[in-house]
Records
---
Amino acid sequence: GAVVSQHPSRVICKSGTSVKIECRSLDFQATTMFWYRQFPKQSLMLMATSNEGSKATYEQGVEKDKFLINHASLTLSTLTVTSAHPEDSSFYICCASGAGGRVETQYFGPGTRLLVL
Amino acid sequence: SQQGEEDPQALSIQEGENATMNCSYKTSINNLQWYRQNSGRGLVHLILIRSNEREKHSGRLRVTLDTSKKSSSLLITASRAADTASYFCATDVTGGGNKLTFGTGTQLKVEL
């Protein structure tokens, strides 16, 4: 299957700083990227959907000014958590879609664990 | 919002036994997928079943889909300790733009 990478895999930062998470589709063109968040012992919750070259669409309750998403190319999307606070500590997972022309196929990255002190 | 509810929330069985997890959802779907997640790790895609399919097999996994009841089940036969993980169903909702909505998950523990 297709490969999606995320960087960094783990990050610890101080409260108030911004953190950028990269998601790359390594061997296909991802027309759509989904960003999920998973708190401990909970399920994955969709945060936003981004299509290459367009503004992201955010789910209800997700602050677009706090979670900045950029999808400037078909192989790279970034999520920036601005002015991170301890409650933003979570597991962030990207998901790339549109691989090989099969719309139903989604490929998940390995996730980024964020800890805000 | 959570599309799917899974039960049981937690399941503990002995190695060699079968494990069955159920998933219910609310709206029309294109397909339903099952994923496994080991503690603190990423997702592993297990199986995808389309809305016009009723049953699918992959190794020790058997998935059923009943669109009239809006439910699916995942059966793991002859379980192993290595099957210990959280299992999630995820629905690709019709008209949802290909995004997946995850169920609440089942924590499976397989004991030796």
---
Amino acid sequence: AQSVSQHNHHVILSEAASLELGCNYSYGGTVNLFWYVQYPGQHLQLLLKYFSGDPLVKGIKGFEAEFIKSKFSFNLRKPSVQWSDTAEYFCAVISSNDYKLSFGAGTTVTVRA
Amino acid sequence: ETGVTQTPRHLVMGMTNKKSLKCEQHLGHNAMYWYKQSAKKPLELMFVYNFKEQTENNSVPSRFSPECPNSSHLFLHLHTLQPEDSALYLCASSQNRQEAFFGQGTRLTVV
């Protein structure tokens, strides 16, 4: 069964700092990869996705992620965070063989003004 | 507004009650999902339906019973729940294996 690991439970940083959140998955076949964000009191929203092609994908709000197939990783980055980036971030994976969209445990990001 | 609507938004029920959660999507998607989101725990996939057929049941207790009468509607029937079932229940839909769109969730409290 596929699984998704997010390395950090809680990240605290100051405005303008750079952010990188790790995500690894365990599945040997073809996958679609996603990062979702959940702002306080709001629903889960898509930040970015990777299906195929250029392994460096850009999403909304200045976020980007890099797919490294050999490492089974899909890390999320933002060069300079803002206070409004305070939220919970989830990595998700779905394989090409089924409809099982699996999520990581999530990382809470707190940005201090 | 995501195109996925869940009702009710909040539900308090006793352990002997029977209630149902409803999810509706107007996005024309073929897959629908139920997830459980508890504090300090990962998002747990409960059930997946693809074209009204259940494709995943993640070892969910039988006190949770899903129903998908058509590709736009998904229900979660609840009976004889336990206090530990208190959580946020999220519905999502997607087209094939593309990004999922989530509803606002139903905050369930079992007393």
